[in-house]
Design a protein that fits this description.
- This protein is mostly beta strands and about 120 residues long.
- Helices cover about 0% and strands about 50% of the residues.
- Strand 9 and strand 10 form a beta hairpin.
- The protein is globular, with a radius of gyration of 14 Å.
Length: about 120
């Protein structure tokens, strides 16, 4: 059974930092592209950041220069370091694992973790 379990969300003041973690199980973690997405109320889910199995990463325009994604394949964990948080960063953040390595699409999601940015 595949599980992606996020942690690290919470309430932070504008300008503050949070680090999200996502631990994967039931998959060969190292072959997956791991991503963070977010969804705010009334808005579509959007890509925040993704990191490929080789380590290259890409970011959504709104978080470039403030957020950083990394992975530790030995721990089956992907991280999202979020700095200089803004109220508009508030959302439910979801971890995603995606791979087509086996010839089929494997696309898994975590349950989400809430990030609230407010003074």
């Amino acid at each position: 059974q595949v599980q992606l379990v996020e942690s690290g969300g919470g309430l932070v003041q504008p300008g503050g930092s949070l680090r999200l973690s996502c631990v994967g199980s039931g998959i060969i973690f190292s072959i997956y592209t791991m991503g963070w997405y977010r969804q705010a109320p009334g808005k579509q889910r959007e890509l925040v950041a993704a990191i490929r199995n080789g380590g290259s990463a890409n970011y959504g325009d709104s978080v470039k220069g403030r957020f950083s994604i990394s992975r530790d394949n030995a721990k089956n964990t992907v991280y999202l370091q979020m700095n200089s948080l803004k109220p508009e960063d508030a959302a439910v953040y979801y971890c995603n694992a995606f791979s087509t390595r086996t010839g089929v699409v494997n696309d898994y999601w975590g349950q989400g973790t809430q990030v609230t940015v407010s003074s």
